[in-house]
Design brief:
Elements lengths: L3 H10 L4 H11 L8 E3 L2 H8 L3 H14 L2 E5 L8 E4 L18
Helix pairs in contact: 1-2, 2-3, 3-4
Length: 103
Amino acid sequence: MVSARLMAEVLDHYHGSRTHKLWLLAFADKANDETRLGWCPRAVLAARVGVSEVRATNIATELIAEGVIKRERPGNRYHSTVYALAELNGRVVPERPDSDWPW
């Protein structure tokens, strides 16, 4: 599954670090256009971004703190974590995201 719409949204509207943008592109490639939900194995994200698996996980945590993604279902040994991508079109990333997930 390729989500060209979400990938274009990341390219056009995410203005964070290049590493974070690359992580978001790798994630968006596997996300659903309608639900904005996606899951991608940590090893795949790490390989696509060119970082270690630990760093790939840390990037996800940083993106959560930015309010760009939300962890919908935690992963475990057998299942990847499911994330939801926020609407990026015209969105200003808050300094500290609200705990109630603003979208």
